[in-house]
Amino acid sequence: MSSAAQINANRQNALKSTGPRTDAGKNISRFNALKTGAEAKSLVIPGEDPAKLEALARAYQEELQPAGMVETFFVDNIIRADWERRRLTRIEAEYFQFQLTERRRHAATEFPVFGSQMAQLLERRIAATERSYFRN
To answer: What is the pLDDT of residues 7-40, one digit of tens each?
Structure first.
């Protein structure tokens, strides 16, 4: 348990903290507590274009035209699954490209590119997002 002196010291130090001041700093710090699932504050992570997600969501909304909360819930899940699948397939391509480059650079060393744990994890995640998409 913290002593009164420790609590007081923590309060004094907290007064000195100002947090990010610039727009760039605020943009970066908003991902400090990035979580997934229901706890996520944003579906867009650094390096992704929020306008692309908005365009994707708008296209699904226009095509499916959900009526009511239940249909909106399913359309939101479809959008999320599609967005995540696009992200994972991009990551998968970048991973394979990196691994193949490393394999060429270290020709004597065997790199298990497609059978690696990371490749299998990515494939499982992609399959899970596709199942979620089609379930909804």
So the answer is: 888 788 777 766 767 776 666 565 554 444 444 5
For residues 100 and 112, the answer to whether their CB atoms sit within 8 Å is no
Is 95 within 8 Å of 125 (Cβ atoms)? Answer: no
DSSP three-state, residue 96 = helix
Which letter does DSSP use for residue 134 in this model? H
pTM > 0.90: yes or no:
no
What are the distances in angstroms from CA 55 to CA 10, 64, 79, 111, 117? 45, 14, 11, 39, 34
Contact in structure between 41 and 33 (CB atoms under 8 Å): yes
DSSP calls for 27-90: HHHTTTT---GGG-S-S--TTS-HHHHHHHHHHHHHHH---HHHHHHHHHHHHHHHHHHHHHHH
Query: Which letter, b or e, does each residue of 22-36 get, where b requires 16 or more Cβ atoms within 10 Å of its Cβ?
Result: eeeeeeeeeeeeeee
pLDDT band at 74 (very low <50, low <70, confident <90, very high): very high
Distance CA 109, CA 113 (A): 12
